[in-house]
Amino acid sequence: MKIDFTPIVRPGFVKLAERTDSWRSDSDSLQAGVLRRLLERAAHTEYGKTYDFSSIKSSGNVYGAYASCVPLISYEDVRPLVMRMIRGEKDVLWRGVCRDFAQSSGTSGGKSKYIPVTRDSLNENHYRGGADTVAHYLRLVPGSRMFAGKGFILGGSFSNTLGIGPGKVHIGDLSATLINRINPFANFVRIPDKKTALMPDWETKLPALVRSACNRDVTNISGVPSWFLTVIRRIMEAKGVDNISEVWPNLEVFFHGGISFEPYRDEYRRITDPAKMHFLETYNASEGFFAVQNDFSDGSMLLIVDRDIFYEFIPVEGDDKRPRPIWELEKGVVYEMIISASNGLWRYHLGDTVRVTQTSPMKIRIAGRTKSFINAFGEELIEDNAERGMAAACDRCGASILNYTAAPVFASDGKKGRHQWLIEWEKAPEDNNKFAMILDEELRKLNSDYDAKRSHTIFLDPPEVLTAPSGLFDKWLKSAGSHKLGGQRKVPRLSNNRDLMERLLELISR
Description:
The chain is of the alpha/beta class. It contains 17 helices and 19 strands. An eleven-stranded mixed beta sheet has the order 5-3-6-7-8-9-10-14-13-12-11, sandwiched between helices. The protein has a three-stranded mixed beta sheet with strand order 2-1-4.
């Protein structure tokens, strides 16, 4: 007889979720306390001594002193310090020696980033953020039985561009570190086994994942929507079904993140049991676990303000680019996120933009990347517009996608410029031209700058939609580095130049 552990653990998780009720009034003080504790623990590091953290944390206005004394940085500013940490130096950006580093998307120079994953950031942020996710879910679903079966967690590997294999230092996907360092007791409630989960070759890993999951009682899944869809489709094919709930009848929740879920939502609803299935979004990046959805009726996420990260925000629009703490934010505004955290990143440009949907407590939606946009014609199209427009167009056309990217086609030979969208379909629309027309309509509703440039087709021609052959984006991810396949698995949605588009079109022509 199977034992359902959910009723046993649920009260503790619910109590954990209930602490966030007080954030309507005490988020500001919690954030101020986080900053003070971060400065105190890093005061004797090289970085802390350089900027005199000891004096800052003792000042009457800690944030004011911090903002005045410590510079805003990008990854390239601290790359040399991180490389020293990889070589084993201690007390550089954070206290002690760091043994784990998350390889993340390349910078503008094309080099990968290696984000320190310190023991403190693992234990006080990433794992606690995961616990918060389960806590909010169990609070929302009193009748859950998620601990009556297994959780299927997809992860990457320790493949990396430095060519360093697992040893004293581990470099690879954040998910690989999370799986590798997790409490061994968690392995009783999750699949696949660690050996399979950390396999570096995705060509052999995918069938191994299918074998691991085909005949298990999976109640919850966690991962990136596009990659998990690939795995699920392989499992359904192996079992000869067209609904994954026929394989996993007790499946009840998908904890998803990494990319927008909107273009995939309808497909997941189609292949799961709508009477049982729930979807909960998380915002967990290599640099930290930032937010979690705590209300099924509200697609925005609750900013986690007490887990070893201090946040600042810079408005994307307007001339005032002064960083602001959470107590100065305004509802409806899009901001770039700046973080200071126990991984040793201080006033760090994360590269993500978020829209504040609520200030008490603070709730956000991911708007996109600071470098993921198209503004070739003054249209200022951001990733948030693209994801919402694509989801609406798919809904109106009865289509669904696997992946897509878009880039400008610049004016030439007397022709105006336009946007070119390359889409790999899960279910193609009957007419690409009609889909392009509807996508254009939706984008015009969402973005006044785009609408102005498209008005009467004076400055910008209608968009063009191209169909990508099956597997194109996987092929590109693999050609860009095998570590990208199945790990973060992020295809840039928008590019302000044609470099990626031309590379993809070249792969098609081969």
